[in-house]
Amino acid sequence: MGTLSWLEAIVIGGLQGVAELFPVSSLGHSVLIPAVVGGSWAQDLDVTSPESPYLAFVVGLHVATAIGLIVYFWRDWVRIVRGLVTSIVRREVVEPEQRLGWLLVLATIPVGIAGLVLEHVFRVYLSRPEPTAAFLVLNGVLLLVAERLRRRSELREPEPATVPLSPVRVSAGPGGAAHRAAAVPTAEELADRRLAQIPVGRAMLIGAAQIAALAPGISRSGSAMVAGLGKGLSHTDAARFSFLLATPVILAAGVLKVGDLAGPLGDGIRPQILVGSILSGVGAYVSVRFLTRYFETRSLRPFGIYCIVAGLACLAWFQLR
């Protein structure tokens, strides 16, 4: 029977929901925090052991995180799924929702294949404290470099001024009744239209960047955002695309191993899994709500600095203890 304390479940569950979407690597923190605390935490929360109950716990957290994202983006996913269905039925890719749906499908393929093939190797051989801390430092460096390159690009080529939306026009219909001649799209719909214009090859490169997150310490959302910024997306659009991309990837990672929850690995810790998963789902919802607004005016720099400082501090701690 596995062991997992309530405190461990609460801390790691809340951390997963936040760190999965913040560009600071949830997996990296899930490895480093138990290693820093030591004792029973290091034993109970060992992702490298195939018999660890922590693996069943992580499955629940991933599913809950994906649910939190789906709840936040549910209107977008309704449009995207509807676009995919109509695209298949009509054999066309005309509407923005249809194109965005196929872009997300194609961009998910590289990381999906890599995850199936390499996940075990990365987890067993790289999910140790020292390499994880080093990868966290590297993650921070990449975030800062991406911001510096983005800044230089903006100075050379200022973004064109956005054209303000025309107000809703009201005209007289038959019998003198007024009706809306044109509806102003929402900010989310406009964002999805911009994302739908990304070239296929560029979208797949952004999706493939998530493969780096198989290494603990490298952020999934951070790597996708860095790739998006490098391909000319704004912070807001890069963040939105990375969150939409993350949803099917995180959900699939959990669903493919959901059998662990019902098997021996889940024995004795299912109440802790439930509590941790609830915290993870709520944390994911609150985090994505915060970050979508944050990146309207802010950058990746604070997260890059944090990753470098935290990674170096962990490396120093592991050497001195």
Largest sheet strand order: 1-2
What's the main sheet like? 2 strands, antiparallel
Outline type: globular
Structural class: mainly alpha
As a percent range, the share of strand residues is under 5%
CA radius of gyration = 21 Å
Helix fraction by DSSP (H/I, runs of at least 4): over 70%
Number of helical elements? 14
- Report how far the terminal alpha carbons are from each other: 31 Å
Poorly predicted regions are 159-173, 175-182
Q: Give the helices and strands as they follow along the chain.
A: HHHHHHHEEHHHHHHH
Key attributes of the depicted protein:
14 helices; single chain; 70% helix; mainly alpha; 321 residues; globular
How would you portray this structure in words?
The chain is 70% helix and 2% strand. The protein has 14 helices and two strands; from the N terminus they run H-H-H-H-H-H-H-E-E-H-H-H-H-H-H-H. The longest helix is centred in the middle third of the chain and has 31 residues, at 96-126.
